[in-house]
């Protein structure tokens, strides 16, 4: 185990500030555990990034399969951690409340592993199709592939409507695809295949057989169809919400945001946070390579692309 070198980690400080502003007691347990685990691995990485990142060469050819477990939990820098975990905080509060903690934990675990497997398949297929072995050496790290899968779930449970991406209204059902393209236009060093893998895993769950397979494997518990009202109270702003939960909502009723939503998003929607991150990447292109998305680099290089 290695301890990260001391220094001012502004992204980590900002993340912790948001977590405490929301209130630890107001964050569902699996979401909180996921945040804590990623922060712990950032402060105490089990291995250097080049030994924990995911690539076809390292996993398939050198049989280093532990990377499937390590790569989602390691981040390139504090801003990479911040944007991923700020997104996880938002998605986790909504999805864990809807799915229940046990099933959400199962979803996070399955998505973390399966996103890595799909990433390897994509990289292998592209390398073979283009006869370009460099794709087998391309190494990715970070939790953002899982976040793309969770975003597909969130959009599936909240169909209709529009989101604002870079100032343009985009229908929810297309938001993941637009963000996939936008991130890689503004931050070309990020892992396109890693994010695409997340979207595909999310679609496998919402449109394919993955959910039924998971339910069959779960045995004693399954996803919360008709989940009977788990309560989380967001009362740091003086009001409590989510007291009565209906998994599909009351007829004509839209779920309200938690009372302190603006506290941990700085008044921005998730898409507006993405827009800010993408714009920031234009200023940091030569210094800070990661803004809320997985980092990708050639494994023979000791650095990662900006």
UniProtKB/TrEMBL annotation:
One of its GO terms (cellular component) is mitochondrial membrane. Residues 63-206 form the Peptidase S54 rhomboid domain. It comes from the Eukaryota. Pfam families: Rhomboid. GO terms for molecular function: serine-type endopeptidase activity. GO terms for biological process: apoptotic process; cell differentiation; cellular response to unfolded protein; membrane protein proteolysis; negative regulation of apoptotic process; positive regulation of protein metabolic process; spermatogenesis. It is a multi-pass membrane protein. It is found in: Endoplasmic reticulum membrane; Mitochondrion membrane. Keywords: Apoptosis, Differentiation, Endoplasmic reticulum, Hydrolase, Membrane, Mitochondrion, Protease, Serine protease, Spermatogenesis, Transmembrane, Transmembrane helix. InterPro entries: Peptidase_S54_rhomboid_dom, Rhomboid-like_sf. The chain crosses the membrane at residues 103-127, 177-205. Its EC number is 3.4.21.105. This is Rhomboid-related protein 4. Belongs to the peptidase S54 family. Gene3D superfamilies: Rhomboid-like (1.20.1540.10). It catalyses: Cleaves type-1 transmembrane domains using a catalytic dyad composed of serine and histidine that are contributed by different transmembrane domains. The keyword Protease applies.
């Amino acid at each position: 185990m290695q301890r990260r070198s001391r220094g001012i980690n502004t992204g980590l400080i900002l993340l912790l500030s948001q977590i405490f502003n929301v209130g630890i007691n107001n964050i569902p347990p699996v979401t909180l555990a996921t945040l804590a685990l990623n922060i712990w691995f950032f402060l105490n990485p089990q291995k250097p990034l080049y030994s924990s990142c995911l690539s076809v060469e390292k996993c398939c050819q050198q049989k280093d399969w532990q990377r499937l477990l390590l790569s989602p939990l390691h981040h390139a820098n504090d801003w990479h951690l911040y944007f991923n975990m700020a997104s996880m905080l938002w998605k986790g509060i909504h999805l864990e409340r809807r799915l229940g903690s046990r099933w959400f934990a199962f979803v996070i675990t399955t998505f973390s592993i399966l996103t890595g497997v799909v990433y390897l398949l994509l990289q292998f297929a592209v390398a073979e199709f283009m006869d370009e072995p460099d794709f087998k050496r391309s190494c990715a790290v970070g939790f953002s592939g899982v976040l793309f899968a969770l975003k597909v779930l969130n959009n599936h449970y909240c169909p209709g409507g529009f989101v604002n991406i870079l100032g343009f209204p985009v229908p929810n059902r297309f938001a993941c695809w637009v963000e996939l393209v936008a991130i890689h236009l503004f931050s070309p060093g990020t892992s396109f295949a890693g994010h695409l893998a997340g979207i595909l895993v999310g679609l496998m769950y919402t449109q394919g057989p993955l959910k039924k397979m998971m339910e069959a494997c779960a045995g004693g518990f399954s996803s919360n169809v008709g989940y009977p009202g788990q309560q989380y109270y967001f009362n740091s702003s003086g009001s409590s919400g989510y007291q009565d939960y209906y998994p599909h909502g009351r007829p004509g009723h839209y779920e309200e945001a938690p009372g302190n939503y603006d506290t941990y998003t700085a008044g921005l929607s998730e898409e507006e946070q993405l827009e800010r991150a993408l714009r920031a990447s234009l200023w940091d292109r030569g210094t800070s390579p990661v803004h809320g998305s997985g980092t990708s680099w050639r494994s023979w290089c000791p650095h990662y692309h900006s």
